[in-house]
Amino acid sequence: MSDTSFETPASAYAALLLRLALGVMTLSHGLMKVFVFTPAGTVAFFESLGLPGFTAYLVMFAEVAGGLALILGLHVRLASVLLLPTLIGAALAHSGNGWVFSAQGGGWEFPAFWTISLLVQALLGKGAFAVPVDLLAMVGIGTRSEAA
Fold it and tell me: pTM of this prediction?
């Protein structure tokens, strides 16, 4: 399915709204880890969960880069799919805290919903007002008929 083959213009705008919401949420979570919790604090938290410290840097990068890609509409399908492990990991990290994310330590329903939303975005594609650039083709990583 091409990213521009929506049945109605409303569908393209719906994909745009979802993309922007996911992009802003993802970017803000990444920037929160960088500027509020700090990289050292984020590493310490990840290590307290039993994860290797370097994974904190991977998550911060994924959230900042992925959020920007979604906001701009760059390789939306690819960005959405590549963010899935981060959100699945967040859901698993909070799974012992119960369902509601407002519970002590945060529950798993918000990251689970976010995961499903990323899957929906990956299926929908970029929607309206996306940057019409195929960065992968520009750097010689394949040529494709549509930018993800």
Answer: 0.86
